[in-house]
């Protein structure tokens, strides 16, 4: 990542960022000169080592802060412990797949808490600091499932649709301030989590790797290609740039044409 220094002196908090898209976004923002705060619900040596690695690679300050985002007070504590938060990236998420009438109530509650309620709590906690600093960027990771639906994903789809709605509200409330709020809506992204699903899909359908990816995993993604973590992270970096100053209250799809159908 080229160090453009456009975000030097800014601090970015990225939730759910010890792997996958969140980690990629943290690295991209660090590459633009931002100090970064990583987060997940674990508190392991390797979590803190990730932050140390980013600090060394990008020449910025980086920390890791544990927080259970299913608990509202913990989400607000995360922002408080982070200190000044100029860029807030709400990325933390989990998934559970089941028909509505069989969907475990506790799984519903947890998914909504982590993926929707926490966005409310972190945003509410971060906005006063952004207003005091006279600059802020709120980037909410939604999904193609924030714009369309699939069966058996009631909690995930509901949470991601809710995130899009909340993004619009925040954008309207801050429209006359130097603060923006936007949602990124990826389709299928090649993450370690997705990579791990490919062998099971091959086995389940009796297909080779290429056919399993094209016809099963990417069935709804017209490009028949995964988006990359780096592509999604690049969109996040763009939203923090001067070029995106008037981009607010919108969704940016990175889904190979999925939501064009």
Could you walk me through the main structural features you see in this protein, from its secondary elements to its overall organization?
- With 261 residues, this protein is of the alpha/beta class.
- The chain has 2 domains: 11-189 and 227-254, Rossmann fold, CATH 3.40.50.720; 190-226.
- Helix content is 46%, strand content 14%.
- It is built from 8 helices and 7 strands; from the N terminus they run βαβαβαβαβαβαααβ.
- It has helices spanning 20-31, 45-58, 72-82, 105-133, 154-173, 192-205, 209-217, 229-239; strands at 11-14, 35-40, 62-66, 87-90, 136-141, 179-186, 251-254.
- It has a 7-stranded parallel beta sheet, with helices on both faces.
- Strand 5, helix 5 and strand 6 form a beta-alpha-beta unit.
Shape assignment:
globular
Q: Could you give the order of strands across the largest sheet? A: 3-2-1-4-5-6-7
Mean pLDDT: 97
Spans with pLDDT under 50 lasting ≥5 residues? none
Question: In short, what is this structure?
Answer:
With 261 residues, the protein is of the alpha/beta class. The chain folds into 2 domains: 11-189 and 227-254, 3-Layer(aba) Sandwich (Rossmann fold); 190-226. Helix content is 46%, strand content 14%.
Notable characteristics:
globular, 2 domains, Rossmann fold, 7-stranded parallel sheet, 261 residues, alpha/beta, single chain
Secondary structure layout plus pairing:
Blueprint: E1 11-14, H1 20-31, E2 35-40, H2 45-58, E3 62-66, H3 72-82, E4 87-90, H4 105-133, E5 136-141, H5 154-173, E6 179-186, H6 192-205, H7 209-217, H8 229-239, E7 251-254
Parallel strand pairs: 1-2, 1-4, 2-3, 4-5, 5-6, 6-7
């Amino acid at each position: 990542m080229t160090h453009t220094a456009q975000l030097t002196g800014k601090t970015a908090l990225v939730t759910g960022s010890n792997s996958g898209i969140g980690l990629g976004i943290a690295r991209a923002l660090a590459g633009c000169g931002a100090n970064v705060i990583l987060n997940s619900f674990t508190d392991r040596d390797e979590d803190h080592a990730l932050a140390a690695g980013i600090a060394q690679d990008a020449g910025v300050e980086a920390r890791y802060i544990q927080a259970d985002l299913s608990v509202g007070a913990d989400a607000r504590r995360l922002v408080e412990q982070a200190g000044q938060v100029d860029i807030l990236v709400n990325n933390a998420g989990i998934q559970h797949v089941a028909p509505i009438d069989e969907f475990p109530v506790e799984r519903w509650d947890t998914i909504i808490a982590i993926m929707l309620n926490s966005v409310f709590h972190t945003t509410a906690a971060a906005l006063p600091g952004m207003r005091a600093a006279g600059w802020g960027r709120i980037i909410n990771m939604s999904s193609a499932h924030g714009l369309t639906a699939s069966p058996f994903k009631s909690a995930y789809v509901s949470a991601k649709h809710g995130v899009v709605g909340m993004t619009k509200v925040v954008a309207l409330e801050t429209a006359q301030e130097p603060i923006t709020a936007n949602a990124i809506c990826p389709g299928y992204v090649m993450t370690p989590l997705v990579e791990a699903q490919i062998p099971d899909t091959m086995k389940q359908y009796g297909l080779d790797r290429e056919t399993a990816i094209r016809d099963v995993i990417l069935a709804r993604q017209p490009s028949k290609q995964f988006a990359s973590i780096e592509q999604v992270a690049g969109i996040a970096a763009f939203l923090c740039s001067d070029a995106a100053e008037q981009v607010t209250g919108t969704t940016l799809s990175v889904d190979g044409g999925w939501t064009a159908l």
